[in-house]
UniProtKB/TrEMBL annotation:
An example molecular function term from Gene Ontology annotations: hydrolase activity
UniProt xrefs under SUPFAM superfamilies: Carbon-nitrogen hydrolase
InterPro entries (alphabetical): C-N_Hydrolase (IPR003010), C-N_Hydrolase_sf (IPR036526), UPF0012_CS (IPR001110)
Protein name in UniProt: Predicted amidohydrolase
Length: 266
C-alpha cells in the first residue's frame, strides 16, 4: 500500500483560498497513491484562533468541494486533514474529512480532545464524542487529530473497532516535537498498528510548527520521516503485517482492562 503524507506549510501571507487551490493541486499530483493524508486545520493553521470564526465553513463548504474533486481526479483515498466546521446550531468543530476515490465523503470525525486547556481551541470549539474508523480495501483506518495522540484510550477503542492503520492529522508545535515522535511510536507499538502521522510546517500565529511527519510500523520501526519544511513523505507498507505481528507477539490478547464483552461494552 502506498501512502503520501503531505506536510503543508501554513504561510500567513497566503490566503486561505490560495492555499486551498494549491493543496488541491498537490493532492492531484499524488495520483497512483492508495492513500493521501493532509494535516490538521491546514486552511487556517491550527493556532490561527482569530481566523476560526471568520473561516468556518459548513461540512459541505469550499474545502469539502475542493478536496472531493481532488480525490476524484486523482482516484485516491484522501484524508483531507481537518477544517473549522460550523454546525447548524453555530457550534464550531475541528472536523476531519475522509473521501473515497470517487470523491464521495466516506467519513467525518469531530476531534474529541481539544487543545488549549482554558483558551484557544478548548474554548472556541465543541468536542466530538464518537471515535471513527474507515474501511479501505486493504486496511481499516482509525482517524485521530493532533492532541488526541496523548490519549491512548482512544486508540484502544479504535483497535477494538478494527483499526489497523492509525492516522494522526496534526498541527504540532516544534517545542514539543520530541513528544510527537515518541507518542507516534508508542501508539504503534502498544496497538500493533501502522501509524501515519502528518503535521504542518512553517510558523503561523507565532507558533513554529514541528513538521517531521512520520510513518511507523507495528513494531515501532520508523518507515520514513519528513524534515521541518513543506514536504511530501511517501511510504509503502504491507497492511497484512498487522495481523502477522499480532499473531507473532499476541500482546493484545493479554489485555485485562477495557475489553469489550461479547454483545456490548465491557
Amino acid at each position: 500500500m502506498r501512502a503520501s503524507l503531505i506536510q503543508i506549510a501554513v504561510n500567513p501571507e497566503e490566503s486561505v483560498n490560495s492555499r486551498r487551490e494549491r493543496v488541491a493541486s498537490l493532492v492531484r499530483a499524488e495520483a497512483g497513491a492508495d492513500l493521501v493524508v493532509l494535516p490538521e486545520l491546514w486552511p487556517t493553521g491550527a493556532f490561527g484562533y482569530e481566523l476560526f470564526a471568520a473561516e468556518a465553513e459548513s461540512l459541505h463548504g469550499p474545502t469539502y468541494e475542493a478536496m472531493s474533486k481532488a480525490a476524484r481526479d486523482a482516484g485516491i483515498w484522501l484524508h483531507a486533514g481537518s477544517v473549522v466546521e460550523r454546525a447548524a446550531d453555530g457550534t464550531l468543530y475541528n472536523t476531519a474529512l475522509v473521501f473515497a476515490p470517487d470523491g464521495q465523503l466516506a467519513a467525518t470525525y469531530r476531534k474529541i480532545h481539544r487543545f488549549g486547556f482554558d483558551k484557544g481551541e478548548a474554548v472556541l470549539m465543541g468536542a466530538g464524542t464518537e471515535p471513527v474508523t474507515v474501511a479501505l480495501p486493504d486496511t481499516t483506518l482509525g482517524v485521530t487529530t493532533c492532541y488526541d495522540l496523548r490519549f491512548p484510550e482512544l486508540y484502544r477503542t479504535l483497535v477494538d473497532r478494527g483499526a489497523e492503520t492509525l492516522v494522526v492529522s496534526a498541527g504540532w508545535p516544534e517545542r514539543r516535537r520530541a513528544h510527537w515522535t515518541l507518542l507516534a511510536q508508542a501508539r504503534a507499538v502498544e496497538n500493533q498498528c501502522f501509524v501515519l502521522a502528518v503535521g504542518t510546517a512553517g510558523t503561523h500565529a507565532g507558533v513554529e510548527q514541528a513538521g517531521h511527519s512520520i510513518a511507523v510500523d507495528p513494531w515501532g520501526e520508523v518507515l520514513g520521516e519528513a524534515g521541518a519544511d513543506e514536504e511530501i513523505l511517501r511510504v509503502e507498507f504491507d497492511p497484512a503485517r498487522v495481523a502477522a505481528t499480532r499473531e507473532q507477539f499476541p500482546a493484545l490478547k493479554d489485555r485485562v482492562l477495557g475489553l469489550e464483552a461479547p454483545g456490548g461494552k465491557g
